[in-house]
Amino acid sequence: MSDSKFKLAAVQLRTELDWEETMEKAERMIKEAAADGAQVVALPEMFSCPYDKRYFKTFAAMGHEETAKHMSRWARENGIILVGGSVPESEADKLYNTCFVFDEKGEQLAKHRKVHLFDVDIPGMRFKESNNFVPGEDITVFDTKFGKMGCAVCFDLRFPELFRAMAVRGAEVIIVPAQFNMKTGPAHWELSLRMRAVDNEVFMVGASAARFEGFNYECWGHSAIVSPYGEVLSSCDEKEQIIYSDIDLNRVDEVRRQLPTFLNLRRDVYKVAD
Question: Catalytic site residue 99?
Fold first, then answer.
């Protein structure tokens, strides 16, 4: 029988240009989160690689396997479930924006390849992630000792069908490593996390990178943890830090009984794959 209560942490770290410096910092912050009682820890999108097209292929060429080994060890040594943000993962001649998840023994629980790539042309910003990455094809839900969880990466957050699919597959906590930018972040980051939480009556965790001021791509930061009712349980500014929240999965059932939108889906009229 799973334990319905646990402490969750989102590590908002700044990715440095030096891989070793970033990895040492990530290890320190994860260790701090675990020492503070966190049993599930999430890292940001591209936590080990600067989020810029100039670095993706160079860092991927170093091999994602070494980064994954570190994450496995961090999970094992700290006795935590680690949602490892995302890293540039290479397979044959393809490059993916991939989140690896490890259990308390350091064993890989899941791997989510970002499904929706960040291709935008908005005033003041043009970015085409598909110039470097290939989209993933899978909906990612995994079992933990606390119950089922799901994960997605950044731009995936804008596609409600993906999150409904995770919810109907049993995910009660969905973790989203991300790097929303300075234009879309203020407008849509917290709003999107709260919408997906309310849509599906699940806990939503937005694990952002800290802002790297002066870098070519500056992210919004503001990591947040949201309840199934849409309440912001914990959040922060753009600086490097760790946020925490106590999670009680009984709250999912409670909200769904009180406001049974998820329980009353008209699957005879519409359906998202389960």
Answer: no
Mark whether 45 is an active-site residue: yes
C-beta separation of 215 from 184 below 8 A: no
- What's the residue count for the chain? 274
Q: Name the catalytic one among 49, 99, 151, 154.
A: 154
What does residue 21 show for φ and ψ, rounded to 5 degrees? -60, -45
Sign of torsion over alpha carbons 204, 148, 65, 26: positive
Annotation says 5 is catalytic = no
Query: What's the rounded Cα separation, in Å, for the pair 164 and 274?
Result: 9
Q: Dihedral through CA 96, CA 19, CA 176, CA 150, nearest 10? A: 70
Residue 130's alpha-carbon distances to 93, 206, 247, in angstroms, are 14, 23, 35
Catalytic residue among 45, 129, 201, 238: 45
Q: Decide: 195 and 255 in contact? Cβ < 8 Å.
A: no
Range of weakest confidence among 58-62, 115-119, 234-238, 255-259: 58-62
Q: In this predicted structure, what is the pLDDT of residue 16?
A: 96
CB 89 within 8 A of CB 98: yes
Q: What mean pLDDT comes out for the span 40-66?
A: 93
Set 49, 114, 148, 151: catalytic member: 114
Q: What is the pTM of this model?
A: 0.97
Q: Does residue 223 surpass a pLDDT of 80?
A: yes
Q: Name the average pLDDT for the chain.
A: 96
